[in-house]
Design goal:
The structure holds two protein chains of two kinds. Chain A is an all-alpha fold. Chain A contains eight helices and one strand. In chain B, strands 4-3-2-1-5 form a five-stranded parallel beta sheet, with helices on both faces. The chains are: A mainly alpha, B alpha/beta.
């Protein structure tokens, strides 16, 4: 057990300011809103606990994302005996069938991102949602940059195969409404 | 970049993600001018990137910190919560008396002990240290308050059907009325959503989230210790 040591008010405010981006990532990774809340809470507590370890304030967001990734890893280690990193997930969470027409595309995209193996899901969301460079993603996930690029390729190829035609159909619908 | 070679998918991705250096970026732009298939692929990648970004644009935490706590986060450091407590409960059992002695010198209004795991070694250590601390404080005539805040799998220690510690917790609570148990409602909700009936031990209080409770106590000058 550790006490909480000398982190500044500014640091705490900066950590708090990252709650929403962290949640967005956590939700995209675990596909479970309540679990994402828990993971973000745990990540923020760990960040407070380890604030003194962050040497470069410019890296705060990436550092928090790395903590969040470790929280998820710990969760899977505790709750699931098999590492889900390379497993293709069944479609779950968001259901295209239950989504309203206006959010159907977003729900479908979330469902397809959710089907990606965790490693690919993490890479594509870190790049697309939070705009991290490949090098930063490699540091966050503790994998070589080549792995980041290959996972991203596989993720985007899978998403392209499943979504491009669907997206085109949605665009046609929108045009017909207009 | 050779005109003859096919542009790899890695390069296409790096282009839409802004990861190419100037020379490769220029070469790929020039290549796209004469390669319709490449233009289409890059366009699809851009579309996918926008679709992923848009799909999560509205994702918000369900339990964002209330306004009071948002202010509290910024105020916490102002409460001089820098305690010279290097390692209470970090110590092994042989160092326990020394560790607890260190804690006695800390001028905190209370101690909030965060238990996020139901692993035996974590819970056993936490409960033993809490008991030692309360015992020593009573013997010294010091008024102290201690809260054990449990979330994630740690909440199991406070559940009637899961806890391996119910007797010990009840004995501790009976012996020390200044000891309180708090369960994280967010964790409980998550279990309920999975169809789990969450029943807590008698006398266990519920906080909206463990984070909220810990920050609230820190605002009040309590010391935070993580199991």
């Amino acid at each position: 057990m550790r006490g909480l040591f000398g982190v500044s008010a500014q640091f705490r405010a900066q950590v708090e300011a990252q709650r929403e981006p962290l949640y967005r990532l956590g939700y995209s990774w675990c596909r479970d809103a309540a679990l994402a809340d828990d993971l973000v809470q745990e990540a923020m507590l760990r960040a407070l606990d380890r604030g003194a370890q962050l040497n470069d304030a410019q890296r705060l967001k990436a550092w928090l994302c790395a903590i969040l990734a470790n929280c998820l890893k710990d969760y899977y280690r505790r709750e699931r005996p098999l590492d889900p990193l390379d497993d293709e997930m069944p479609s779950g969470g968001d259901s295209p069938e239950t989504a309203s027409a206006s959010s159907q595309l977003a729900a479908r995209v979330r469902a397809e991102v959710g089907r990606l193996p965790l490693g690919q899901r993490q890479v594509v969301t870190l790049v697309d949602l939070e705009g991290f460079s490949y090098a930063e993603v490699g540091q966050i996930l503790e994998v070589p940059i080549g792995t980041v690029m290959s996972r991203l390729c596989r993720a985007r190829e899978a998403l392209r195969a499943r979504l491009i035609d669907f997206a085109a159909g949605q665009n046609n619908k929108i045009r017909s409404i207009r | 970049m050779s005109q003859e070679r096919e542009v790899s998918q890695e390069m296409q991705n790096a282009f839409v993600d802004g990861q190419l250096d100037a020379a490769d970026w220029t070469a790929l732009v020039e290549r796209m001018g004469s390669d319709e298939a490449l233009r289409r692929k890059v366009c699809e990648l851009r579309t996918l990137k926008d679709m992923v970004r848009g799909a999560y644009a509205d994702a918000r935490p369900r339990r964002a910190a209330p306004a009071a706590n948002r202010r509290g986060w910024a105020r916490v450091a102002g409460l001089a919560l820098v305690f010279a407590l290097a390692g209470w409960l970090v110590h092994e059992a042989t160092d326990r008396s020394h560790a607890v002695a260190e804690l006695h010198g800390v001028a905190a209004n209370g101690i909030v002990v965060h238990v996020a795991s139901s692993r035996g070694e974590v819970v056993d250590t936490a409960l033993q240290e809490v008991e030692d601390y309360l015992h020593d404080a009573r013997a010294a005539g010091r008024k102290v308050r201690v809260e054990i805040v449990a979330n994630q799998t740690g909440i199991d220690i406070l559940r009637t059907d899961k806890s391996a510690y119910s007797t010990r917790l009840e004995r501790l609570r009976a012996a020390y009325p200044n000891l309180t148990y708090i369960a994280c409602n967010q964790t409980a909700d998550r279990l309920r959503e999975k169809g789990v009936a969450v029943r807590l031990l008698p006398g266990v209080h519920v906080a909206p989230t463990a984070l909220d409770e810990i920050v609230k106590r820190m605002q009040q000058g309590w010391l935070y210790i993580r199991a």
